[in-house]
Amino acid sequence: MPEENLSNLSSPFRGTGGFLDSVVKRLTYYKELGNKTFAQLSDKDFHFNPGEECNNIAIIIQHMHGNMLSRWTGFLTSDGEKEWRKRDAEFEDQNLSKEQLINLWEEGWKCFLDVLRALPDAYLENTVHIRNEPLSVVDAINRQLAHYPYHVGQIIYAAKIIKNKNWHNLSVPKGQSFLSNELKSNP
């Protein structure tokens, strides 16, 4: 395949503004997968622990909440690991209700997405710190772009174990890929 000269192409994903829009779009998608998962769960399901070394859904939410608030409060001006964060407590089941956990989920995502949406493109080359490690703003964003979907995947996997045959698929169900592809090609 011959190499293409991409330097002359115009695209909303080329340049820094496109990067931020793309990140917000991708992460909003993962947030929505979490929302759709939570809608299928009862209060007790959030606390189901599939194994001794596993975190239940409540703990994952607590951790994501703490991480998001710590990383994105004062994002450009203070270290992403705040002194007020109680990271170890995030990994202790605090017996919060489904409603309380969803409130934590929403608060964390709001903090994170509000910062991303307001971040000027000019700041993408700045340096921020997480645990005293200097990172470019783009690298700090990419770090979370890997971190948050990782935990959303854990939440979904745990929910599938809990719901088993009562799980309502969030994507293309097994054995229906052909139908999904057919619908895309014949709108």
Descriptive key words:
disordered N terminus, mainly alpha, Four Helix Bundle (Hemerythrin (Met), subunit A), 4% strand, 6 helices, 2 strands, two-stranded antiparallel sheet, globular, single chain, 187 residues
Number of strands: 2
Q: What's the end-to-end separation, in Å?
A: 30 Å
Share of β-strand residues: under 5%
Structural class: mainly alpha
CATH architecture: Up-down Bundle
* Overall number of structural domains: 1
Poorly predicted sequence stretches spanning 5 or more consecutive residues: 1-16
Q: Main β-sheet, in a few words? A: 2 strands, antiparallel
Rg, alpha carbons: 19 Å
> What is the overall number of helices?
6
Strands in their spatial order, largest beta sheet:
1-2
The CATH topology = Four Helix Bundle (Hemerythrin (Met), subunit A)
Secondary-structure element order, as H and E? HHHHEEHH
Characterization of this structure:
Helix 2 packs parallel to helix 4 and helix 2 packs antiparallel against helix 5. The N terminus is likely disordered. It is globular and about 50 Å long. It is built from six helices and two strands. The chain is mainly alpha-helical and 187 residues long. A two-stranded antiparallel ribbon has the order 1-2. It has one domain: dinb family like domain (Four Helix Bundle (Hemerythrin (Met), subunit A), Up-down Bundle).
Q: What is the fold's blueprint, element by element?
A:
Layout: H1 16-38, H2 57-72, H3 87-90, H4 98-118, E1 127-130, E2 133-136, H5 137-163, H6 177-185
Antiparallel strand pairs: 1-2
